[in-house]
Structure formats: C-alpha cells, structure tokens
Amino acid sequence: MGAPAGKSTGGGTGKMLNEITYEKHFNSSKGNRVEFWITNFDYFDGIDYLAKLFCKKYQMQADKKVEGIFFDFIKVHTNDIEYVLIWHEDIGTLLYNLNQNTDNIAQLEAQLSAIVQEINSSLSGN
After folding, report:
1. Contacts of 45 (CB under 8 A, 6+ apart)
2. Measured distance CA(113)–CA(3) in Å, rounded
C-alpha cells in the first residue's frame, strides 16, 4: 500500500528533492469550502496538466481554461462531479469540488492522491 494521502513517502535513494504534496484547507471566506492546496507544484500550465490527468485517469472532460490577471481556472467534470482547478498568483495551485458533500470531497481527495503519486513517480523516475 502507498503512502497516506498527501504525505511524503520518505527515504529511498531515488527520492526527488521537492516531492509534490497537498494539504486540505478550509476556506473560511468561502463558507469553509474544502480545498486542496498543492505544494511544490510550480509548473507553467500546471492546472492544464492536472486537468489532462483527471480526464485521462477518470474519464472526465475539461472546459476551456479561463485566464485572468491574477488567476486561471479550469473546470473538469463527469456526470454529477465537477472540480475546479485554480492557479492563483498568491496561493499557487488548488482545487475543490463544487458539490461540497462528504462523499464527493473524499472522492476528490482519493483521486488527487493517486494523481500526485503518479506525478511524483514519474518525476523520480520510478
């Protein structure tokens, strides 16, 4: 079994220096909306890459990227699931589920954990 969601796997000689992780955040200015903030993910068009991975791995579809002055966002969706992937100049990359129920938040976290693990594996060459 892999590392716990959003946690470093630690150790290993092939471990990269800046492993990508995420942290659950409760946004009090948005009614305590549950968001997942991604750390060490400072890549040009990073949300485009995340959207591509969600589409490929979970058969989702991505809407056209909306580009603003201080932030960009992409919505990815399938059936009754809709995630918003955001890059913000002050925060970095974050995402959340538009439907903020417990099951949907847990599903997003599980899917994000798998994607983060996949990205870290590809970056470390494993």
Report:
1. none
2. 9
